[in-house]
Fold these 2 entries.
Entry 1:
Amino acid sequence: MYSGFLQHWQLPSALLIAAATTVWPCMPACGAILNYIFLPTGIAPPYALVGVAAVLEASPDTTPTPTIFDHEFSLKDKVALVSGANRGLGLEMAMVLAEAGARAVYCVDLPKAPSDEWFKVKDYLARMKGKAGEGRLEYLGADVRDQERMWRLGQTIGDREGRMDICITAAGILNADTDCLEYTSKAFQKAYSSPNVMETNVNGTLFTAQAAVRQVVRFGNGGSIILIASLSGSVTNRGFHRISYNTSKSAVLQMARSLACELGPKRIRVNSLSPGFIYTPMTASFFDTDPGLLEVVADSTPLNRPGRPDELRGVVTWLASDASTFCMGSE
Ligand SMILES: NC(=O)c1ccc[n+]([C@@H]2O[C@H](COP(=O)([O-])OP(=O)(O)OC[C@H]3O[C@@H](n4cnc5c(N)ncnc54)[C@H](O)[C@@H]3O)[C@@H](O)[C@H]2O)c1
């Protein structure tokens, strides 16, 4: 009712302000007041008003209940796609989406079959009290660099679930330390093994977001897309020679802002997340083989330590949920 009221008044308020400007000398102050009263501020959430707006509408004899965790932070019935979710940060993020109420979380990663760790998380969620029948983890093997495959995969999820709401692009790889003057074209692209950094971290991020967003648009419920960038997209860690990784993550930051501007009118929010050093299989590959490096990195951080994957649970839930509906194109 409230949102209808606001939308209804959008045009009249504009006319009223325009008319008042021409006839009333004290207009600057009055215009500001009218703007405050009439300017539409978006559609109110489907579960009704919350916060002070709810207080002002409530009758004095109702017994209010808290809404912040049951509504704003809740992902009840949402469907999500998370890339790189066979392990590491992707798996941690997939788990918390399910825990926050998502009906199904589709984990996408390179291996055809998921890891033991993934199965343990799936089983744990299935046993979680109060979550029976909810929080389903699903697994689909795919390479995020394969655009056609990713789009088809998105379509499959949409067909199965009848909706798509959230996407997290956590698939990513790191290149080996390489002297910037020695970088050949091939080396600039390559990671430790064979896949290439730019193609995985940049193209793969876009293709994953496209796969999900095409379905978000199809079902028209709006959505939240979280691109996993890195602190290495904004700052350079001295001593690490990782020019392709750093460049790829800067690209992800700008991709998020670009997508945000294009997709905002469709009620699809896009934000990026830039974790600092977190101990995962990716970072273990250099922390565990270079004695003393962990201390050097820890020393350069305000908390004097690298982070744990679980320390991203809160921010991911916040960004994925209605708790962040005015957060858009941010890092
Ligand atoms: N761990 C950190 O300190 C840190 C910090 C900042 C950003 N990040 C970013 O977070 C994301 C996750 O990192 P992580 O530490 O969990 O790494 P990880 O290596 O543990 O996990 C990455 C996952 O991505 C998958 N993947 C790689 N290439 C793929 C492809 N072509 N198609 C599908 N899946 C693919 C891998 O198989 C792996 O399961 C990455 O984008 C990484 O750059 C990590």
Entry 2:
Amino acid sequence: MSMKKVIILEFAPTADEIWNLDHNDIDGYANYDVEKGLVSILDTAHDAKPRPEILAVYAGGKATNVARVIDRLLDEKSNVKIELVTFLPPPQGIFCKLQPVKLNDVEIMPSTPSGMYVQALQILDLVNVRPRFEIIDELQGPTAIQATRRCIEMIIKGTGTSLNFSPRIIWTPKTVHAVLQKLEKLVSNVDMVVLAGAPPIWKPVDNESITPHDFYAEILNLLPPQCDVSVDVRGYYLHKCLFSKKLPTFIFMNKNEFLEASESWKKLNKGNFFGTIIVHNKDGCWVWDKDIPNTDDLFNGSIFYPSPKVEKVYSTIGAGDAMHAGFLKEWVSSENTEDRLSRSVIYSQSVSAVSVSNERATHGIDAVAVDQIFNKIYNKNY
Ligand SMILES: Nc1ncnc2c1ncn2[C@@H]1O[C@H](COP(=O)(O)OP(=O)(O)OP(=O)(O)O)[C@@H](O)[C@H]1O
Ligand SMILES: [Mg+2]
């Protein structure tokens, strides 16, 4: 089997942090109202200064999460080369004098301080997946500050709730064109492209045909005919992909996203669709292979795979990303046998079961624990 090449595209580079905020009547947050879902935090006018404990710092973004999980599952034997491609702003001021630095196989690129921080976190997190950093000169100017971000997940200790702050990534139409041009070159010899999460947003200018809604569909149209595409994107972004010239090969979505897309299934022409749809929730996965949902009875016609039993659920954060990653790992590293799809689905469920049932969520995923669950289910059914 020849070496397969996969690229995962990260348009929303992130440094993720998890903070733990304890309850303190004077200093910390004051109250959590379970019924209303409201957390109150004392303001500084009340002399309060929340002092959260920093629990974790890592490279984030939906696509990066998928790459990070694949990285943990791949072994040296896998005959596949996977790159995580991240789009970053150029350096400013004196930093323009910096030169790229090669570290093992990775080229660290001069960027903004926050762009360099994201690179450092990715390099530390990824061993088998190779990060690749693309500097987009058009990411300068007033929107440069929104080209990378820090996302904060603030856990309110002991309450089972959290607050999440995730700034939007903002581009200009010029950035979009520059990225598409760069992508055209990048994708010419790849076997699979992975799209996950919402794209950046921008204000389209007059006479511009491209909008954030059709950005992913535009990417599909750039790809060579033999290139597979796996998407975990929702709403309009997905809808546009379903009606682009080239259609996705794999579509991942949770049950709510699936129901939200019911208008798309109605309009989609069954004869044109050769992909696979994988819908999941805590109960299991519904799979349509080279087929689309029946609009009168949505789930009829799908193959159902029940979720592996999980004793205690610690955290479902990133469970969907873990599932996407697990599927891709198994699919790209296995031969084209008859059971390839069912193997990959069951493997993906085993990965998310490990993810939800350990305290470190996606960070606690390990290939041995995944294989144990996988072998149990697979050997029972096949
Ligand atoms: N409470 C749970 N019990 C058992 N398994 C679960 C539970 N929640 C999630 N899972 C497993 O994780 C998989 C993916 O979870 P979910 O459907 O919540 O993803 P999601 O909503 O796409 O999440 P995200 O995109 O935020 O990562 C499920 O199909 C299931 O296998
Ligand atoms: Mg999801």
